[in-house]
Amino acid sequence: MYAFFLISGVVDMVGYSGTTIPDGLDYCTLALALAIEGLLFASHVHGREILDIHIHLLLVKVIAATVVVVLLEARFRRHPLLPLGRAFLLMLQGTWFWAVAVILYKHGQGHSDWDLSSPESVMMATIYFSWHCAVIFVVMIFMHLLMARFYLGRSGEKSLLPSRERLHNLSKATWGEVPNSDTKYSILSSDEDMDSNDNDGGGDFNANNKNFKMERGVDFEEA
């Protein structure tokens, strides 16, 4: 398991160093590492008590959901809720790891006060799992509100998340639904001056410019 997460980290560092790697490879290696983790934990429950099996299967379900979200994030890179969902699931995975250790081993004492063969214990563990979900969700909402208080007051924006229209336009631009023979691109400089010498209809792309305008019936700018 650790080896696959090491591979995922190495791929991330190689990509951030500027080396050309296949698009989406970092997401795929992370999804692979999580899938191997889930497989190992799913195989970790044979011959265990029902409570032991149940709390491990809850962890496996969280890992499986994380794999799905990571793969969706690889496809829809600009959707703001997918990174938040991944953060939520990874935090839930971490806190539930801690809860499993407490339930089974009671802070390293080697024994548990829980009745591992009791259906009532299974129900209580499920309730505790739902509490973990609720607390993490509230913490993330609090962090969002805290960041909004400091960020939005300075930027003048109305929300930390992009509007639905802007998100739709950015998604089309990312996945090639907009660029075709009918699409015209032109770069806007910081003072919004257009290049009057552009003769090819395709726009003057300058790496030093920060904004661009897409002309296909809908205009938007990307910082």
Automatic annotation (TrEMBL):
It is a multi-pass membrane protein. The keyword Iron-sulfur does not apply. The keyword Transmembrane applies. Residues 186-210 are annotated as: Disordered. The chain crosses the membrane at residues 53-72, 84-105, 125-152. Pfam families: DUF716. Keywords: Membrane, Transmembrane, Transmembrane helix. It comes from the Eukaryota. InterPro entries: DUF716, TMEM45. One of its GO terms (cellular component) is membrane. It is found in: Membrane. Belongs to the TMEM45 family. PANTHER family: EPIDIDYMAL MEMBRANE PROTEIN E9-RELATED (PTHR16007), TRANSMEMBRANE PROTEIN 45B (PTHR16007:SF15). This is Transmembrane protein 45B. It comes from Elysia marginata. The lineage of its organism: Eukaryota, Metazoa, Spiralia, Lophotrochozoa, Mollusca.
